[in-house]
Design brief:
Blueprint lengths: L2 E2 L15 E2 L13 H34 L5 H30 L3 H6 L4 H26 L2 H36 L6 H4 L5 H22 L2 H6 L2
Antiparallel strand pairs: 1-2
Length: 227
């Protein structure tokens, strides 16, 4: 916003020229909104991603404990695995939205910039291995005995590769996650970007949906064990 003082001296009426303010308004549209509004959209996406990432870290840590004795803890392993599915999809949705906006040329997302080069390269691999890991695990619950050996091998192999890339992925985003995750919960910071309540409800809804899916699917563990 530029301000200009009208130049001039006393007019013929003896009055002094009044300073004028010139408002420079740009074109309207989703990517031509005022910079602060564009920033709020980017920040809202980042906060949602950070909150879901923090939730996933907790759930994945719990799932990791069951891997240590997966046969004995198979019911817990399946329950937590199915519980993870909706939050994982929400995380993919939020990061995918940022990806699309950035490569579509959105000024705000361009200004924020992409993740570091290594994390950018690993991103598609993280998504691919995550889908492979969860899909093979779910298929193991419902597929017939003839598919068991191949699916179990795929599930184990994808887990090993997934674990390696996830270690790098998590470490690369850990500081951002720790910074962003609490912002929609602290009274002072949650007011800075509108929609904090909607973002919290989105995360809670994904967790509730995951719990429902887990309850519906955990009964398959008994059928799996007797194959």
């Amino acid at each position: 916003m530029s301000f200009m003082l009208a130049q001039g001296s006393l007019s013929t009426m003896g009055t002094v020229a009044v300073p004028r303010t010139r408002h420079t308004l740009g074109p309207t549209g989703p990517d031509q909104a005022p910079p602060d509004k564009r920033w709020r959209g980017v920040e809202a996406n980042a906060r949602l991603t950070g909150t879901v990432a923090a939730l996933l870290l907790v759930l994945l840590a719990a799932e990791g404990v069951t891997v240590l004795r997966v046969r004995a803890l198979l019911t817990a392993h399946v329950f937590i695995g199915m519980l993870l599915v909706p939050p994982v999809l929400l995380k993919m949705g939020s990061t995918g939205y940022r990806f699309v906006r950035y490569y579509a040329g959105s000024p705000a997302y361009r200004r924020k910039g992409p993740p570091p080069a290594l994390l950018r390269v690993l991103g598609p691999l993280v998504v691919l291995l995550t889908v492979c890991l969860f899909a093979s695990g779910i298929a193991l619950l419902f597929a017939g005995p003839g598919w068991h050996r191949d699916l179990l091998l795929l599930h184990k192999a994808s887990f090993v590769l997934w674990f390696v890339v996830m270690v790098v992925h998590v470490l690369g985003h850990l500081l951002d996650t720790a910074r962003l995750a609490p912002k929609d919960f602290y009274w002072r910071t949650r007011r800075q970007v509108e929609g904090a309540g909607a973002r919290r409800w989105a995360v809670a809804a994904s967790l509730a949906l995951g719990a429902l899916v887990a309850l519906l699917c955990v009964g398959q563990v008994g059928h799996y064990l007797v194959r």
